[in-house]
Amino acid sequence: MNKTLRFMAVPTLALAALALSGSPAMAADQSYQSTLGQLNGSSGSATIELHVTGNQAHVLLNVSGMPATFMDMPYPHVQHIHGGAQGTCPDPSADKDGDQVISTTEGAPSYGGIVTTLSTSGDTSPAAGLDIKAAGQGAAYTIDRTFELNAETKAALEAGTAVVVVHGLDPATLSPAGAAAKSDLIPELPLAATSPALCGTLTAGQMKMPAGGAETGIAQETGTDTGALAIGGGLALIALAGGAYVVRRRTAESTA
Predict the structure, then answer these.
(1) Model-level pTM?
(2) Cα(133)–Cα(229) distance, rounded to whole angstroms?
(3) Measured distance CA(185)–CA(228) in Å, rounded
(4) Sign of CA dihedral 142, 125, 34, 107
(5) Using CA atoms, how far apart are residues 173 and 113, in angstroms rounded to an integer?
(6) Helix H or strand E encompassing 156
(7) Which of 30, 163, 189, 213 has its CA 20 to 30 A from that of 178?
(8) If residue 58 lies in a helix (H) or strand (E), which one and from where to where?
(9) In whole angstroms, what is the distance from residue 45 CA to residue 57 CA?
(10) How far apart are CA 90 and CA 39, in angstroms?
(11) For 217, how many CA atoms within 13 A lie in the half-sphere containing its CB?
């Protein structure tokens, strides 16, 4: 349980040296968007729209095709706006240890530290970066909410260095070395649990965020007992820490 709590409480994916924080800051009204590309063999996809009005930002993030489950529970996918670096997504040369997986820290020189956590509810600060209770759940979900813009995110947007990263891979899609490796951030977890799966640079555009969100066809699963989900997620993470990390493969497999 202590390891599970550590996973839930370690701020910003253990990127203490990379994460940035700050107070709200006024920004010129502007809209930003990105279609996220795949990293590390991910088959997922995502689009994001971010509309800034004063010191408020309204985000609409649609994610689909991600790993759906571990231990028969919805897979918690955390996602963030990163900034302060090159404003790009890493290419294969970022894999410095040769395991054919770009870890979160290997990708950091390209996309930088966390400036905003794109959570489904609650805290959007960098310190909430690993809050699985507010993570996207399962294969497809939508984050549609308004939050207060901090100075670091504002600066990254205006400089063109704001990058959205969605985390969480299916170990079955990784190389043998990558599937066997431990997380570079939390060694009790597999590398797949914290590595980036989707990435895209936010660019200024002219789109107008629709009032109340958009009809996306992708929605967070409803009818789930959130208390049970949190408990079940905690139990699954205990199993993760014990090395029993299981993600359902995309193709059905017969059980032995």
Answers:
(1) 0.74
(2) 8
(3) 27
(4) negative
(5) 26
(6) helix 151-159
(7) 163
(8) strand 56-64
(9) 22
(10) 8
(11) 3
Alpha helices in 181-241 (DSSP H): 191-194, 226-241
Strand-pairing partners, residue 198, are 38, 166
Radius of gyration of the chain from Cα atoms?
Answer: 17
CA atoms in the 13 A half-sphere facing the CB of 123: 14
User: Which H or E run contains 6?
Assistant: helix 2-9
Dig out the tokens for 44 from the structure: 């997922």
10: its two tokens: 């370690």
Q: What's the rounded Cα separation, in Å, for the pair 110 and 158?
A: 17
**CA nearest neighbour of 103 among 119, 86, 115, 90:** 90
2-9 vs 226-241: helix axis angle to the nearest 10? 110
Residues 94-136 have pLDDT tens digits of 999 999 999 999 999 999 999 999 999 999 999 998 888 899 9
Chain segment 140-183, per-residue pLDDT in tens: 999 999 999 999 999 999 999 999 999 999 999 999 999 999 98
Q: Tell me which residue has tokens 């095709």.
A: 65
Q: Are 189 and 14 in contact (CB under 8 A)?
A: no
- Compute the half-sphere exposure of residue 222: CA atoms within 13 Å on the CB side of its CA: 3
